[in-house]
Amino acid sequence: MKLLHLADLHARGERAKEVLQSLRIAKKTALRETVSLIVLAGDTWDRAVLNVAGAHFIEFVTAIGELADVAPVAMIYGTPTHDVEGSLEVFETLDTRHPITLLQPGIAYQVFNTPNGSEIIQMPEGAAKLHPLATALLFGVPEPNKKWLTSMVDNRDDAEAAIRNALRGLFAGLGAMRRGLTSHVSVPTVLVYHGQVAGARLQTGDILDAGAGLRPSVDDLALVGADYIAMGDIHEPQRVGESIGLPAYYCGSAYPVDFGETHEAGCNLVNVLPGSHTVARISFEHPRNQTIRTTAERDMFSLDVAKHEPVIQGARVKLEVTCDKDHGFADRYGAPDESS
Ligand SMILES: [Mn+2]
């Protein structure tokens, strides 16, 4: 099954041009590749959006709706400060050719072929098996937080440990559901997840350790037995858990949200089969950000930037020049200001 994996759209009025460009390229790609599923893995909004001029609310909703005219769209909630509670329900109300479905934790969905194309159908509670014509099994886990995980915990004596166990139990439970639901069919399982995973790399170069908060390990995610894990939250595209064969990917943010994000923004075009997958990167064609740091040794005009680091073709380059007060730069060129 072919799917398109997007995440971290961070839609906000000030960046509407970039967000809408990313969505246009995603739609074009989904059409060209005839994907059966489009996944938005959280942080669709950057913050609560008012339906007022300048917010581009209607354009964002329309552009995401247009994705669902190509293929069914599966969404999950991201970080609560970005996808504010209740802010994604609007998408389920749209009159699109295919459904837009907000995936809830602990519930199984099947991607299903109908004469009109692909659909996402929630499995009825207690259903033992996928429909014989199902093309994929689908699970969604929004960013882990105490609020929704606590509702899955019976014993509240040791809140922190109990909630961690609840998250691990959720992944193990999805694994058990998968084995039952797919015992008679050979279809891939796709897990959509928003949040950190131990072992992931941040833009700063730091690697997340396993110790903190509700952050799952790659072994926790592996309990699901998914054939592709479409993740959101970390903005630098990467695969996580490859050493244990985990097919978990952050596709990265849909545009560079700030200058610290130096990756080429895009989405993952995924071909997933039971037990195997391939990933191709699709660029959203935004300029990359590059910061070049250098030191002025004699004066500004003798700077040889190329000597320090190759400039990426087409990049937005920020030049950071460090100079020594004793060299009298301020006297010669004036105090640093916007144009320095
Ligand atoms: Mn994000």
What this model shows, in words?
It is a single chain. The protein has helices at residues 16-33, 57-67, 89-92, 146-150, 159-181, 218-222, 305-308, 329-333, and strands spanning 2-6, 37-40, 73-75, 100-102, 109-114, 117-122, 134-141, 189-194, 228-232, 238-240, 248-250, 266-273, 276-283, 289-295, 316-322. The chain is built from 8 helices and 15 strands. It is globular. The strands form 3 sheets. Strands 6-5-7-8-9-11-10 form a 7-stranded mixed sheet, covered by helices on one side. A 6-stranded mixed sheet has the order 4-3-2-1-12-13. Strands 14-15 form a two-stranded parallel sheet. β5 and β6 (117-122) form a beta hairpin. Manganese (II) ion binds next to loops.
Q: Which features would summarize this protein structure in a list?
A:
340 residues, alpha/beta, Purple Acid Phosphatase, chain A, domain 2, 2 domains, seven-stranded mixed β-sheet, six-stranded mixed β-sheet, 22% helix, binds manganese (II) ion
